[in-house]
Amino acid sequence: MPEPWDSYLVTYHDDNPGITEDCLSNARDGAGRSPYDWLADAVPADASTVVDLACGSAPLAPLLAGADVIGVDQSAGELARARGPRVRALASAVPLAGECADVVMTSMALMLLQPLEAVLAEVARLLRPGGTFVATVPRRSAGSPVFAAILRDLDQVGLGYPEPLDDDVAERFAASGLQLEADESAVFARTVRDPEDAAHVVRSFYAPGAGDRQLKAAVATLQRSTPVVVGYRIRRLVARR
């Protein structure tokens, strides 16, 4: 049986700090943007205070040089790599004052944060009236053929995230006082050039329950023809309080 997501995620990120950012920072869409560039594009230019929930190693902070970015994460390993002000806390219980932020954002994490309603309520509490919430999440079932092959090798086909953001996402946002204004998708491609990079990409996949056999099979899939391109389909949600 797969390990429970909550315990899996804490161990995973403490053991692999920065791995998501290391992989996705090299992925690009047709306009040459990384997933982090795309998220930052949705942050209003006049935002002065930004809270980055589940910030990881805080790759977004350098893209928002005109704002004070406060990173929040529960992983000590990730926060040790993060730049700027940072707070170790759950996304559902952030020790910051209400209405302190012009923007709350979260990259590739909203589908993992439980319970979602408590996290969205915390987002609404942190935002000033008229503030912006931006989140990116992966579309796990809609990546490239190589992406799908890795999921197959890791025995993750058909296994969703703890909080699937399905067709009711607008209603779930609205219940917390957040009005969904945009729901878009884009594809970001990353070239895998050598065996070491292949192993790094495979380790970047969330795969609770996967053992050495599955990991080796996925790495072998990437190594059959190098360089090989992994395509990540990512969804961007933008809401207002």
Write structural notes for this entry.
- 39% of the residues are buried.
- Helices cover 32% and strands 25% of the residues.
- It has a domain at 5-137 and 160-186 and 234-240: Rossmann fold (3-Layer(aba) Sandwich), CATH 3.40.50.
- The protein has helices spanning 5-15, 19-24, 35-41, 76-81, 116-126, 145-153, 169-175, 195-203, 212-223, and strands at 49-53, 68-73, 86-88, 101-107, 127-138, 179-192, 228-240.
- It contains 9 helices and 7 strands; from the N terminus they run αααββαββαβααβααβ.
Helical region count? 9
Which fold name corresponds to the CATH topology of one domain?
Rossmann fold
CATH superfamily of one domain: Vaccinia Virus protein VP39
Summing up helix and strand content along with how strands pair, one would put the structural category as: alpha/beta
End-to-end Cα distance, whole Å, is 40 Å
Strand content: 15-25%
Helix share of residues?
A: 25-40%
The residue-averaged pLDDT reads 91
Widest sheet: strand ordering: 3-2-1-4-5-7-6
* CATH architecture group name of one domain: 3-Layer(aba) Sandwich
How many strand units? 7
CATH class of one domain, named Alpha Beta
Biggest sheet architecture: 7 strands, mixed
Parts with pLDDT < 50 across at least 5 consecutive residues: none
- What is the CA-based Rg, rounded? 17 Å
H and E string: HHHEEHEEHEHHEHHE
From the spread of the alpha carbons, the general shape counts as globular
